[in-house]
Amino acid sequence: MFLDYFALGLLVFVVLVLFYGIIAIHDIPYEIAKGREHPHQDAIHYAGWVSLFTLHALWPFLWIWATLWRKERGWGFHRLEEEQHDLHHRLEKLIDQVESLQHEVNSLKQHSATEQHTDKPEEK
Fold first, then answer.
1. Residue from 44, 77, 50, 40 nearest 63 by CA
2. CA–CA distance from 103 to each of 98, 100, 108, 109, 111 (Å)?
3. Residue 115, CA distances (Å) to 7, 15, 24, 77, 102 in order
4. CA nearest to 25, candidates 42, 48, 58, 53
5. pLDDT, tens digit, for every residue of 34-79?
6. Burial 57-78 (b: 16+ CB within 10 A, else e)
7. Which residues contact 85 (CB under 8 A, 6 or more apart)?
8. What keywords would UniProt list here (predicted)?
9. What residue spans define the domains of the chain?
């Protein structure tokens, strides 16, 4: 009789530990996001609760989403933005150079045309 109650108590204990363990596990991405001051931490938290109903199918994606953000570097794309900014300035300089070269070519063409026009002997 004692062993029956002990087994029942053990079964209830295991079920409760598993239940609360699953709930604690689903909150790990939210805790990561909260610790990193993630801008989408509320969305990660809500998606974690939705993930409970999908048997944690979303959970790995929430983990990735939570770990991508860092307060000091954001999403980590600053280097890419800087490179694009530098390329944009280089492109502007090249466009300015091409325009000045086109202007110079046009002025040389005009100068050449006026020289050819003045070098022709006049017909009488």
1. 44
2. 9, 5, 9, 10, 12
3. 111, 100, 88, 57, 20
4. 48
5. 999 999 999 999 999 999 888 889 999 999 999 998 887 777 766 6
6. ebbeebbebbeebeeeeeeeee
7. none
8. Coiled coil, Membrane, Transmembrane, Transmembrane helix
9. 1-75, 77-116
